[in-house]
Every structure is written in structure tokens, then in C-alpha cells.
Amino acid sequence: MTRPGFRLALFATLLALVVVLLGAYTRLTHAGLGCPDWPGCYGFVSVPNTEMQLAHAQLRFPDSPVEEHKGRNEMVHRYFAGGLALMIMMLGVQAWHRRHIVDQPVGLPMLLLGVVFAQAAFGMWTVTLRLWPQVVTAHLLGGVTTLSLLFLLTLRLSGLFAPMPQIGRRLRRLAAIGLALVVLQIALGGWVSSNYAAMACTDLPTCQGQWWPDADFANGFHLTQHIGPNYLGGKLDSEARTAIHLTHRIGALLVTFSLLALALQLHRAGLQGLARLLVLALAVQVALGISNVLFHLPLTIAVGHNAGGAALMLTMTLINYRLRPVFAMSQRHAPSFWQHAHVLLHLGPHR
Predict the structure, then answer these.
(1) CA-CA distance, 346 to 351, in Å (whole number)?
(2) Does 74 qualify as catalytic in the annotation?
(3) Residues 146, 109: contact at Cβ < 8 Å?
(4) Residue 99 CA to chain centroid, in angstroms?
(5) For 68-91, b where at least 16 C-beta lie within 10 A, e where not — what string?
(6) Which pLDDT does position 243 carry in this prediction?
(7) Percent of the chain as helix, strand, coil, to the nearest 5
(8) Which contacts of 325-328 are long-range, i.e. CB under 8 A and separated by 24 or more positions?
């Protein structure tokens, strides 16, 4: 039986997926600075298009000429993200008002509120710091985190999937490791994208015709690089971008082997449906990643690769949620803060 707020949480989850994909589309069309200010666009609520507005934009931002299509991509993303933030606020308010109801999640909606405020800040810094790779990558991770937490909230409000006490710790540990590796791989994907390293290697399975080409890992992962220049198009040299790309490939191999091992264990545990879903999500994502290299990063496939990463993350969220242990608690009292922390950190049991 679904709980109050389920439909709103489900709709917010779908909207979060749209926002993540719009963010990917904005980034891949080089529209991250389509509006050089925040939250408006050249000082307006939409992209300037009249002669007076264009003259005003030129006066205020002489080094950033108006490119309507890029500005439109950026503003569409911002408006959808703003709508998502309002929905998360509604979920938070509803959860607070229902906090005395048994099995009503409260900690998770409050956490989502914190994440969405942080996302707004990262969205602003993405523009004001001129696509600084650290901020762009953190903004991407924040978007995926928002999506995953909303999906987790939807699962908890759905009333489905009781805890599985018969599942051993080994399987749960393997699922947690798989989730952690997927998160790290998404972060690496964000670092590849924000440093424009996707085309550093244009062949498979080798890179630049070699198994191990010259690569500058020190500069490729120099996380304290200075803030200031416009990072549109990237500032790293070829060897640094190669290092980033190679690391992402190695990460992909680790994720693939780990998730295949998890799928095998799920199948042996009698969870064939979850095993098949995981293999499907993994296969699609691997195919999209290979296609990006072989077809030289076409926009459709590149956006699809971002969607595949989100789908894999949601699949791992579902698996960890299904495998959560029974969490004994009083039926009369709400869980403590530490019980909430257990749920959020380990995708734990219902509250």
C-alpha cells in the first residue's frame, strides 16, 4: 500500500531524470556559459532577442556575445531545475507535517532539501567560475545524488519490497561495493566531460594506436588547479586528457567485472529479476560508451550515455534497497537520528 506523497515523489524522480539529461545536453552542446550570469540570462529572465535587449546584453557582457541557441539550452535546464527544487521543497514540507505518522520518512526529504540547496549553489558557481572542472563535476554528482535519493524516497513511500532477512552479508557487501564503484565511475565520467577528454582516445581497445600511450596523470588529476580562466573547451594538454580518458576506461572495466559478479550472486540467491535488470543496464551502458569512441561522440549517443549512467545508478539503488536487512524498531516511536543515518548511508530499511 502506497503512503502519502508517493505520487509526488515519483513525479519528482522522473523530473530529476529529465533535469540530469538536460544538464548533459547543455554541457555537450557547449552551452554551459550560454548565459554568462546567474540566475538570469544577460540580466533577463529569458534569452534576450529584441534589439534593445541585445544592446543591453552587449553593454553588460562585451566579452560574451549572445548565442540564442546556447542561451536557450541553458535557461531550459535552469527552469526545469527550478521546478524540481520547488517539488522537493513540497516533499519536505509534507514530510514535516506528517512526521508523527508511523512509517513516514522525514530524514530523507530533509536531506534532499539540503542537497537541492547545494545544487543551486553549484549551478551558480558553474557559471561564475567559468566551468571550473571541479565545480562542474560536483554539480553532475549532485544531480545524480538528487535523482537517486528521490528514487529511494519513492521506493520507501511505495510500500513495496519488504526487507530480506535471508540475504547474507556477503551479497549485501558486494552490492554496496558495486554502488560505490558506480558512483566513482560517474564522477570520473564527469571529470572526462568537464575537461573535454572524451576524444583523447579515438580507437578501441587501444588508445592512439597504443596499449599505454603517453599520459600525464599528475596534471590530469590536479584538483587544486587555479580558478580564473574560462574553461570552455578545456585547458589541459593532450597527455593530461589521455590520462583522464584511460582512467575512465579502467574504471569501466572494474565496474563491469564487479557488477557481473554481483549479478551472478543475485541469480544464485534466487533474485533472477534483479540480476537480469542489472546485466541489461550494464550492457546498454557499456555499448553506449564504446559507441561514443567509435562514432566520435555523436550528441545523441553521448546524451544516451549519461542516461545509461543514471539508469545504472538507479538499478544499484534498487538492488541495495531490496537487499537491506530487517531493522528492528519500536512501532510506537519514530527512529532516532542514527537510525536515519543508517538508512541513508546503507540504503537501509523502511522507517
Answers:
(1) 13
(2) yes
(3) no
(4) 28
(5) eebbbbbbbbbebbeebbebbeeb
(6) 97
(7) 65, 0, 35
(8) 325/163, 325/164, 325/165, 325/167, 325/172, 325/349, 326/163, 326/165, 327/163
Enter the C-alpha cell of residue 211. 596499449
Q: How does DSSP classify residue 324?
A: P
Residue count of the chain, please give it: 351
Sign for the CA dihedral angle at 185, 189, 195, 200 comes to positive
Q: How far apart are the first and last CA of the chain?
A: 14
Which amino acid, 190?
Answer: G
Quick count: other Cβ atoms within 10 Å of Cβ 228? 9
Q: How far apart are CA 151 and CA 147, in angstroms?
A: 6
How would residue 344 be classed by pLDDT, with cut points 50, 70 and 90? very low
3-state SS class at 1: coil
Please state, as a whole number, how many other Cβ atoms lie within 10 Å of the Cβ of residue 136: 23
Catalytic residue among 51, 67, 68, 74: 74
**H/E segment holding residue 129:** none
What digits encode the pLDDT tens for the residues 240-250? 999 999 999 99
- At 157, which amino acid appears? L
The pLDDT tens digits for 172-207 are: 999 999 999 999 999 999 999 999 999 999 999 999
Q: Which residue has the cell 521506493?
A: 155
Task: Of 43, 38, 33, 120, give the one whose Cα is nearest residue 83.
Answer: 120
* Segment 105-130, tens digit of pLDDT: 999 999 999 999 999 999 999 999 99
Q: List beta partners, residue 41.
A: 44
Confidence of residue 327 (pLDDT cuts 50, 70, 90): low
